Description:
The chain is an alpha+beta fold. The chain has helices at residues 19-26, 31-36, 43-51, 53-58, 76-81, 115-118, 121-124, 127-131, 186-194, 235-245, 262-271, and strands at residues 73-74, 98-100, 104-105, 143-144, 150-156, 161-168, 174-175, 178-179, 198-199, 207-208, 210-218, 247-253.
Amino acid sequence: MSAITRPPTSQNHKVFDLPEILEAILLHVDMRTLLVSALRVSRFWYFLIARSPQLQRHLFFREDVAAGPADPKTNPLLRETFPFCFPRDGDGGRARVYAKSERCATHGQGEYHNFARRTAAHILHNPVAFNRLQASWRRMLVQQPPLKEVGDLVTMAPDQRVLACQTRSPDLQMGAGRFLPSYVRMPDVLSLALAPMDVSFPNMPEGPVAVSFRVLWRRRPGVVRNGGTQGGDRPDLVERMVSDYGVVVHNIGTVEPSPLRKSVARLREILLRHPDHIYAMNSPIF
């Protein structure tokens, strides 16, 4: 049999046995393919991906110290999976200090801002995959360079009273037998956006008052001027918080308690179950 007609041998595939070359190739593969397909090719591929600092940064599992703070990059796979927590594509250029997600209603009736059925239907239809404590999305950094805190802002409509203005440190997580660096990951954002908020007022019934939320992301650093540069609700406070922390979850409430939407309650069950649990390392994928 001639060399031309001879079927391929292992010699043709030796290039994939060289870690340096395989790593360089995989750095050009999209995140979803790496997580869904490449990890399952072989044990060699799995351990190369899991142990390569460059690939782990590419997958937003490890912080990228070389990433420039003036040009933050949000996690593209998390943007695709949780669009209700990220700005819509194309609006970042208009934002001077920050860009914001759509306004998402958590309480009340009707289709008003019904994000759970519009942009989170894929989560509601795949509860087992998203509910897994080992799911990769739980360990991913929300952006590079990583953020160390989440801003927590709660205001009341219509007078914009501030009920809460604070920061939240990331929850403790564990991977490969060690604690992961304390950076903001997706559960930290979701816990503020979807968690119930109980506030008591004099001469008013107790109950959840948060009726909607939006997530604000810093776009470019700069000096926040008096009066704000973007307008909107409480521009001074909002812009300062986003400028300081990089991401702020802004809950908007009302003094009239309204029922929690069933679809949002289901999202909480799926995404926030055991919020204090320390997650395991070997997460398959989304």
